[in-house]
Amino acid sequence: MKYILATDSFKGSLSSMEVEAEIAEVLTEKGADVVSLPMSDGGDGMLEAFTKALGGTIEPVYVHNQMMRRVDAAFGMTADGTAIVEVAQACGLELVKEDERNPMRATTYGVGELLSRAVKRGCRNFIIGLGGSGTSDVGIGMLRALVDIFAKGKTFDDAMKTELGECRFTLACDVDNPLCGENGAAYVYAPQKGATPQMVEQLDRRAKLFAEKSALHYGYDRSCCPGAGAAGGLGYAFMQYLGAEMRSGADMLLSLCRFDDVAKDADMIITGEGHADRQTLMGKLPQKVLQHGLQIGVPVGLVAGRVDAKEQLLEAGFRFAESVTPDGMSTAEAMKKEVAQVNLRRWADFHHHHELFND
Q: What is the pLDDT of residues 87-142, one digit of tens each?
């Protein structure tokens, strides 16, 4: 039996690599041939998944987090000068304790520092993962850092006349919110970053004003483009100021790791995520893996910490949709790393004997 493992992370619990390692160990012990492909749609785990797919190395650097405190970070780098940047390394929600979160102050300055480190190392092609940010500053902090580093005391146009202007940016992102308004960055995402209703209005006004001024300067406006509202408006700053293109992170990764070629002679593809439900079928990573499986004629099974809407998942084409969490176990318990690892191994062991794997 040949298995392809292509799961997303179990958010807040295990990375994609960790999920796949537990399943792979059990299946390999049973004599199966297992290929692990760490996955990410541009959010959690994007740095390691994309860097591995591109055969790059992880380069450690230090930058400032959203509260301007020094923090250890990293970017991925390939031999041909492609950089893989996960913005959460510099401004991730998890970098700041809950009671210290303040989206009026939180800055993306560190993202600009991260980009500049890669530019100075010779990178000219950038893949940017926009997931997990703890900021709502429309990317103003990032742009300020780029000016400080590439054109101290001058303007962003001057910064673009340096090697920064030679860079190409692709955004790996599966969010399609515009920058402003009720579906925009502030209204949809700022409350989970610590914003009060009053702050949300202020943040939305600030974003509108910035977009209006930027549009006057450039003669075009990217604030309504799908994805402009991603990462607290960072999507907008990348598109408006750095000419970035937006692509589905999951699609991009599946193509980079030549998924169809690797999986076409497999007996089974196993994908998964922390919580599978109706939203899984709205373009989330497991659904993208399913589409590829259906195209190449290899069955795809779904494994998750928790599964809701099982019938719909099976109707959509998954061979199975299974929860690894035993009945009666609380979500908080199930999300503990060591508990999740045991649950995954138990599931893999049980199902190796089950008809799911032997039909």
A: 999 999 999 998 899 999 999 999 999 999 999 999 999 999 999 999 999 999 99
pLDDT bracket for residue 151 (50, 70, 90):
very high
Residue owning tokens 């960072």: 234
Q: Contact, 17 vs 281, CB < 8 A?
A: no
d(CA 127, CA 266): 29
**Structural contact between residues 96 and 106, judged by C-beta atoms closer than 8 angstroms:** yes
pLDDT at residue number 95: 92
- At 145, list the tokens: 């850092």
CA distance 98 to 105: 14
Per-residue three-class SS string for the chain: CEEEECCCCECCCECHHHHHHHHHHHHHHCCCEEEECCCCCCCCCHHHHHHHHCCCEEEEEEEECCCCCEEEEEEEECCCCEEEEECHHHHEHHHCCHHHCCCCCCCCHHHHHHHHHHHHCCCCEEEEECCCECCCCCCHHHHHHHHHHHCCCCCHHHHCCCHHHHCEEEEECCCCCCCCCCCCHHHHHHHHHCCCHHHHHHHHHHHHHHHHHHHHHHCCCCCCCCCCCHHHHHHHHHHHHHCCEEECHHHHHHHHCCHHHHHCCCCEEEEEEEEECHHHHCCCHHHHHHHHHHHHCCCEEEEEEEECCHHHHHHCCCCCEEECCCCCCCHHHHCCHHHHHHHHHHHHHHHHCCHHHCC
Q: How confident is the model at residue 28 (pLDDT cuts 50, 70, 90)?
A: very high
Q: Beta-carbon neighbour count of residue 323 at 10 Å?
A: 20
* pLDDT tens-digit map of 58-83: 999 999 999 999 999 999 999 999 99
Residue-level pLDDT at 283: 86
Report pTM: 0.92
Token look-up 């994609």 returns 16
> Which long-range contacts does 195-200 make (Cβ < 8 Å, 24+ apart)?
195/103, 195/104, 195/136, 199/103, 199/104
